[in-house]
Amino acid sequence: MTPAAAAVGAGAGSGAVSPESAQQAIGYPSLFLLVMVGALVPVVPTGAIVSSAAAVAFHHSDPALPLVLVFAVAATAAFAGDALLYWLGQRGVRSQGGSRWLAWMRGQVAAEPLERARSRLERRGSTVLLVSRLVPAGRVPVMLACLMARMPLRAYLRGNLPAALAWAATYQLIGLLGGALFPHPWQGVAAAVALTLLIAVTPPAWRRVRGLRERRAAAASGAATGAR
């Protein structure tokens, strides 16, 4: 028997757990909890968490199963968190006094994004949920619009299932890209987090710049009209 085989046999006989197995035993429940909490209270950067987990899984000795588990856990947690938040919001809609969760959701959404979400919901139905999960800060306005439209929980869940799957797949692909670009897991995690934050920041920044340009153009137009 070779020394390597003897070492493996000794480890198996003593019941030793590999570092990768220990990481998975801790990492998957933590991933589920963080993503689900982030779905309820969107201050946790869930996209960055999923991308980071995918980047780490990419560097496993056999990455196929860890990557499948990251996707399954992330999608399940996102779906469960959305379902719970919608159910809590429904209780507020049905109650005359409202609820703390419904009031919190209304406080998170300005009038203009809510009106856009309502308009899209009227035109596209539950298919708007797919896009809302992928657009930064787009999930809560659409969810609130669905609540205001009295969409049943079952109909919301049917539309939200493909949205949760697409969301998990998108951020896992970002993590895979970060993991593939760099030889060390921490470098892949850093790249995945940077890409995720860039995706999250770009749309609001662009809307702000566009709004500023529109206001400047309107002011210039008004000044030109007044000078005539």
Would you write up a description of this structure?
By secondary structure, this protein is mainly alpha-helical. The protein has one domain (22-202). Helix content is 83%, strand content 0%. It has ten helices and no strands. The protein has helices spanning 3-14, 19-40, 46-58, 64-94, 100-108, 111-124, 128-134, 139-148, 153-181, 185-227. α2 runs antiparallel to α3 (46-58), α3 (46-58) packs antiparallel against α10 (185-227) and α6 (111-124) packs across α8. The longest helix has 43 residues, at 185-227. It is globular and about 55 Å long.
Radius of gyration: 23 Å
Q: Tell me the helix content.
A: over 70%
Order of helices and strands: HHHHHHHHHH
Q: Main beta sheet, described? A: none
| N- to C-terminal distance | 98 Å
The proportion of residues in beta strands is under 5%
The figure for the number of domains is 1
Category by helix and strand content? mainly alpha
Strands, total number = 0
Low-confidence stretches: 1-18
Helix count?
A: 10
What's the mean pLDDT score? 77
